[in-house]
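So, could you explain this one?
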Amino acid sequence: MLFSSISGIKKKKIVLLPHNNPDGDALGSSLALLFYFRKLKHDVYLISPTEYSEYFQWLPGIKDILVFSEKTKSLIKKKIVNSDYVFFIDFNNLSRIKNIKEFFLYSKAKKILIDHHPFPFFFDFMFSDSTVAATSILVFRFISDMNNLSKIDKEIATCLYVGLMTDTGFFRFPSVTSETHFIAGKLIEKGIDIENIYDHLQYSYNEYRLKLLSQALKKLKVIKKYRTAYTSINASDTKLYSYKKGDTEGIINYGLGIKNIVLSVFFFEEKKKYPIKISFRSKGDFDVNMFARKHFGGGGHKNAAGGILEKSLYESIEYFLNIIPSYHKNLSI
């Protein structure tokens, strides 16, 4: 019913919605759908609840994103309330769209989930698979199920490829499968510029971002007993090094790159008044999704998750250090 309705002649009003602080997979998946639904002649809007990192400014269609602000609030509410379909992309909990969650109280739109995180809430239609490496894979499947793979052009392929690259750690995470590479191959056939994409994603550093990384590496601590590494960035660091959204991306991976480390944790204090944002990465069987859910009010995937604490940076780190010993059997050699 959904496919026939969207594929039909009648123009539909569609809203595409990624999560707060959208990453490469959320943006890539959403932008790919934006181009795709435009090809089907629908009236489509891509709305972001927050600003996105400037390091994605080069993506095709990025300037067409309607970002929530006090100036755009009324327009965004109108678009959501009057839409026929709202696509929730790369998240499955309304807490991830804090600025606009209330607008759905007034909307009768069909709610469609396209996401690869576990434990989804109920939606009218769900394209959910927590075993896949990226939501971009599910968008590819979605287009394929509509028998429209021929509509994937270079722009759509570029966006989906960015989603694949960023959520698979450049195709090196355990979640990568033969399907991941099969889809990547199909996208390459559309003429995407792999070298250009890689350069934008891997070498988009500026002087201040490198200095912020240097600061995090100076603070890096290793707990050999528990095969754990952790570090942090505080509000003074962000002020000193002119922090911009996205500057801390990838910091957490350095800890996980240390020999014998299976858990890496990054604590981020953007401003003094904000809660502490915490990122978790793991190798093997240590499930940071469950760890984050149980102790940090967060979640994510088995080997990549996040959470927050309404504590100071010092208190957050101490809280974490007090918890870790209880996972001795899971983390020790």
